[in-house]
Amino acid sequence: MQELRNKVAVITGAGSGIGRALAQAFASEGCNLALADINETGLAETAALLAHHSIKITTHTCSVADRTQMQALPAEIEAAHGAIHLLFNNAGVTINKTFEDSSLEEFEFVTNINQWGVIYGCHYFLPYLKKQSEAHIVNTSSMAAFLGLPNQTSYCMTKAAVKSFSESLRAELSHYNIGVTSIHPGTIRTNILNAAAGRSGKNAEGTQKLASLMARYGMPPEKLAVKVVKAVKTNTMQVRIGWDAVLADWLKRMLPYAIHAPLQWGFNRSLKKGG
């Protein structure tokens, strides 16, 4: 999709982090925006940051995990904007626990947002995207889609699912002139781990330390957004964002089994320290 000006972009998880950066980047390209998030305050802050752009912006308080809300969202946005051209299924969460320590409710919490949120988005918005001569879907996966990380069973599972789902969907939708891109961020400066700390039980302190490292060394989400703009314009299938995402992908390709040995060693070492 070479021409983005006056297109309508729907962005979930737009109240902070990657979603907010995407909103800023596509606003700069002249896109009109429908911003969705469960955090009404964050949505208002994002909209306020974009007020200087000569575009139409609407905000929609919505949980991507709520099927009924997601079913109603496309018609609400089309009524406000007249069309929908771009869909960013970006909302995401994690918890930092082993599978054994995670309750089924916690596993469902991550799955409902990271996986079902993407499915609901694609399912309910697809009829609206098909009305356009061209359209594009961007699904936020992660470098965690490339290899399983300890304490991230639910997150890795959902992000790997998003990767495979996006690949299948891209093949199926190409004849409608709808592009599909999965993005695979590495360490990005967002609040995802801060939000996870309260759900991480005995790992809360360690999760907070990881969050501090992410805030210090992570890539600014604005740099990610620049790469996503380019990916939409060139209809790229997958985008690895950050040196760590590229490294994770290549190590898994070159050392498909051996790459897991240091991960297992590090996890076992942390257990001994904890004991």
Q: Please, could you describe this protein's structure?
A:
It contains eleven helices and seven strands. It is α/β, with parallel strands linked by helices and 275 residues long. It has one domain: Rossmann fold, CATH 3.40.50. α6 links the parallel β5 and β6.
State the end-to-end CA separation. 54 Å
CATH class: Alpha Beta
Q: How are helices and strands ordered from N to C? A: EHEHEHEHHEHEHHHEHH
Number of domains: 1
Strand order of the largest sheet: 3-2-1-4-5-6-7
Indicate the mean pLDDT. 93
The second-level CATH architecture is 3-Layer(aba) Sandwich
Overall body shape: globular
CATH topology assignment: Rossmann fold
What descriptive keywords fit this protein?
275 residues, alpha/beta, Rossmann fold, 11 helices, 7 strands
Describe what is shown at a glance:
The protein has 11 helices and 7 strands. The protein has helices at 17-28, 40-49, 67-81, 104-114, 116-129, 153-173, 192-197, 204-217, 221-234, 243-254, 260-274, and strands spanning 8-12, 32-37, 57-61, 86-89, 135-140, 178-185, 238-241. The protein has a 7-stranded parallel beta sheet, with helices on both faces.
